[in-house]
Hints:
Helices cover 63% and strands 0% of the residues. It is mostly helical. The longest helix is centred in the middle third of the chain and has 24 residues, at 185-208.
Amino acid sequence: MSVLLLPNEILSLPAQAARKLVQADAGDAALLYLALLDCGGEIEGARRRLRWPEPRLEEAYRRLAQLELVQSSTPLPPPAAPPREERAPLPKYSRDDVADALEKEPEFQGLYQEVERMLGATLTDRDLQGLYTIYDYLGLSPEVVLLLTSFTLHREHRLHPGRRVRMTQISQEAFRWKRLGVDNPQAAQQYLEQQQRVDHREWGMLAAVGVTERRPAVEKEREYLEQWAEMNLSDELISLAYQRTVYQKGARNWPYMNKILKNWHQAGFTTPQQVQEGDRPARQGQGSAPQRGSGAQSTQPTSERIQQNNDWLDRFLEEQSKEG
Length: 324
């Protein structure tokens, strides 16, 4: 049985690149490479085509650099802000606009009834205007809006049990999903699965950074945890970054920890032992003094080892802050 490609323009993939991607079993990297080819090498065009969360794009780009399919010396540029003239003003829907939609658009009427049921409260005129903004202006389908509403309810109940969820919170989350490219059922399902993975690891990652007095993470902390879960960093590696941060800063510092972990991830480190091996200065000459102790290495950083790496770590973080 033959398999036919859709008849259309041809996109040429070099055989050497195809072999590298197949042998590396790098699915996301292959998709990014194809998107880059289709967009003439423009990362912003590929970013728009794929509509991935930024950590996923960063990981795929890093994998391409490892496979030498993009220039490893060229960092992934941040998302470009749309030109000011392209930012359409937010429409102001009147009560008549919403009433007309409820009468003539059965899909929106069904959405309104289901959202009202989920929230357990009657929607005001202002609430309905907000819901119609999500439906008409953002163009989110009822399926996506209902997934979004369920997610917002679940998150709010975890953070603030018993607190009522308002339509303004759902609107804010809708604009965030749209900005992230989570604007179709498939993307929404992938995003929710990713959030479930973070939920599963949240307690362990928080404990690794010394947060034991409360659960769950607040919103800003959650953003960092999402990045670390997306990079598949172990709790042990996160704990080591926390220890180094406290040694350097004297307290928990989320941006500083994040820079350390990103650096280790880009270097390919997955365990504390690999970090310590990679950090250890090269021995000069032969017959250097043996390390004290035997057996498995401790994951606790010694003062000497950390002091030896202060310079390069500070330089790295300073460069990253200039780029960011």
